[in-house]
Amino acid sequence: MPLHVIVGAGPVGTALAHLLADSGEEVRVLTRSGGGPERAGVTRVRADASDAAELTRHARGAAVLYNCANPGPYTQWAEHWPPLAAALLRAAEDTGAVLAITGNLYGYGPVEGPITRDLPLAATDHKGRLRARMWREALARHEAGAVRVTEVRAADYIGAVRPANSVPLLYAAPALRGRPAFVFGDPDLPHSVSYVPDVARTLAAAAASERGWGRAWHVPSPPARTVRAMVADLAREAGARPPRVVRVPRPLLRLAFPVSPLLREVGDLLYQWDRPYVLDGAATTEEFGIEPTPWEEAVRETVRALGAGPAEASRPS
């Protein structure tokens, strides 16, 4: 029975651990706190994954090493991501494990039309350029024959995710309680979201097949919906009244940038909400047969994970 080592126990790492353990695989989850799913088939280990020697020790014998980490808030990416990415590459090289990376769409920057995996990585902000650079470095090591790598790229998450870590859920959280939803971009443009279990399924499939290595893969995701429609669907499932959606004026938002480093970082990505932002995962479906979870099921499980039911949603605002 092969060993699968997962770095990170956030939404994707947790979903992946359950998926692999349910399939009878041996799973080891590494986090700084030693947390992770408490269940049969999963061993939780406290470790600093940015320490290449320590990570290599825990990954020895693994068939796959999965990067499902989220090292620090936006404002600290430049500090925390490079050493972690370097350690993961080193551990994969030293152990022979396939390195499967959880990625996002930041590396593409602003795009026109559907976001396909063949688009150039032309990010305009430092977070996107960082993600693009890390992938290029990993791909270069793959092409040199030093390591086998794959990257799975997803849109904003829905599912068992804290609202603070998902812009659509950050918008929707007040609406689930019958309050207005304040959004940063045009609420009537289509925007893709990826359901966390679908991200986990794509990671497992891309890592398991030689055809998945040396390429980036997009998570098959439900048809893109407008923010207004997403918020309404989530509120309806929670038993809340139809929400009022209010767009925050861009000049007002920019006034907060000097005093809020986090909002400044979010501001770099507002292009995603000012144009259609549609993820194309057709190549993944064609190659691995993965279909997106139906939207209605994703909505139901998202609301359940948020703990927002009719009793809570009916509170007065």
From TrEMBL:
This is Nucleoside-diphosphate-sugar epimerase. Residues 6-209 form the NAD-dependent epimerase/dehydratase domain. InterPro entries: Epimerase_deHydtase, NAD(P)-bd_dom_sf. Gene3D superfamilies: NAD(P)-binding Rossmann-like Domain. It comes from Streptomonospora nanhaiensis.
